Structures are given as C-alpha cells and as structure tokens.
Amino acid sequence: MNNDDQGLDFSTVLASTVHDMKNSLSLLMQSWNQWLERLPPELAQSGERGVIEYEALRLNGMLMQMLGLYKLQINQLPLRPDWVEVEDLLQEQLARHAEILQARDIRSSCSVEGAGLFFLDAELIGSVIGNVLNNSIRYTRSAIHLHAALRDGMLLLTVNDDGCGYPADMLGRYGNGTQDADVTNGSTGLGLYFGQCIASLHQRDGQHGYIELGNGGELGGGEFRLYLP
Predict the structure, then answer these.
(1) CA proximity to 89, closest of 67, 115, 63
(2) Could you tell me the end-to-end alpha-carbon distance of the chain, in angstroms, rounded to an integer?
(3) C-alpha–C-alpha distance, residues 66 and 159, integer Å
(4) Would the CA dihedral through 91, 94, 98, 103 be positive or negative?
(5) Which residue from 144, 126, 109 is spatially nearest to 226, judged by alpha carbons?
(6) Which is it for strands 143-151 and 210-215: parallel, antiparallel or unpaired?
(7) Does the global pTM surpass 0.85?
(8) Mind listing the pLDDT tens digit of every residue in the chain (229 residues)?
(9) How many other C-beta atoms lie within 10 A of the C-beta of residue 21?
C-alpha cells in the first residue's frame, strides 16, 4: 500500500458508494414497475409487491439519510427555505406512500390546525416526515395520522400511529441542547439523528428546531413531533 492509499478518506468513498447504490436502486425500481405493467392484475396486486416496494422505499430513505449526514458533516447540505403550504407538504408524503399504505390496509389521514404558510425547507422537512412515515408503516396496526399546528409561535408537525409506541428509553426531546439520537440503534436511530440535524438547521431569533418522541397522541400509539421556529 502506498502513501496515497493510506491517505484515502473513507467517508468520501462511502458517500460515493452510497450515491451509486441509490442510483442502482432507482434503476431497479424502474425495471420493477415496467415488469408490473406486463403482469395480469391478479399477480400485480400480490402481497409480495407491497413488501418489495416498502423495503425499497425504506432502503432509499436510509441511503438519502446517509448522504445527507455526510453533506452536513462537510458543510455541503444547503438550507433552502421558502414559504410552503403546510397541508400540501403533508399530503405529498401521504401520496408518495399511498400504494404501500393501501397494500398493507393502513388508513391514512391528515389535518391542519391554524398552520397555513410557513417558512421552511420543504425538501429536507419532507424527507424527515417521509422517513418517519416509513417507520410508522412498519410498526402501526391499522392507521397513521399526520397533523400540523402552531404551538407557542412554532410549527408542530406530528406523525401518529396506533402501534405499541416507542420504547421508554427513546422517549423525550432530541437536539437543541438536549439528548442526541443513538445512531447505533439501527435505521430508527439513524432516522432520528437525521431528523434532529435537519430540525436544528431551521432557526429564527436564536431558536432552533428540535424533535420529540412520545406515546399516546391522537391514535394511542407512537407520536413523532417536529418543532420548527
């Protein structure tokens, strides 16, 4: 091994590999959808389809998180906030997951309470909500509800399900001077840390965004809360 090899930046190599994996997954799913179109309806709507599409969406989400965290580490994850219609943001995520929700017979709904336009990065916040939605699909029993409201001058976005809820050791607030999410806790920990970082990027008048996990909520299961100033 020469000196150049010893100076190899593993994080850069990993990021490049993740990017290639994401492109390969995209091509794979394009071929999958083309193949589905040629199948008779009774085969195209099989239970295996829901499993494949859910796991592909989940894998794509994890790859996006890893790329996002790498860009954040090297200060190349730009924040591009704009005035966004909050209900449209939530409905877009439900629409992206519509086929998987239907395949798993999960009811989905969305409500907005006093939150119309809000200044945020729609792409980054949408990716956080989408990743939490993926996790909720995995653990819910039969329903998922997205909600937006204004609380003490902050925008509160929640993802509720009717599953067993979050483990006790995961409950509480993350970011903004509190605990950090444990990235060693599988995809859930990685997703929470990603959400914590994206929330913290949003700041106004010295106040940073943060996330919080609780149980109960509107559906009695887990409740993910994202606060944005």
Answers:
(1) 115
(2) 50
(3) 22
(4) negative
(5) 126
(6) unpaired
(7) no
(8) 455 555 567 677 776 777 778 778 788 878 877 887 888 877 767 767 777 877 787 787 778 777 777 877 777 788 899 999 999 999 999 998 988 898 888 999 999 998 889 999 999 999 999 989 988 998 999 999 999 999 988 999 999 999 999 999 888 888 655 566 665 565 567 788 889 989 999 999 889 999 999 999 899 999 999 999 9
(9) 16
Give Cα 72 distance to the centre of its chain.
16
Q: Is 122 in a helix, a strand, or coil? A: helix
Q: What are the residue boundaries of the structural domains of the chain, listed by start?
A: 3-73, 82-228
82-228 CATH:
3.30.565.10
Tokens of 224: 């993910």
| Residue in 179, 169, 159, 172 with CA at minimum distance from that of residue 222 | 159
* Residue 130 CA from chain centroid, whole number: 4
What residue type is assigned to position 128 of the chain? V
Largest CA distance in the chain: 62
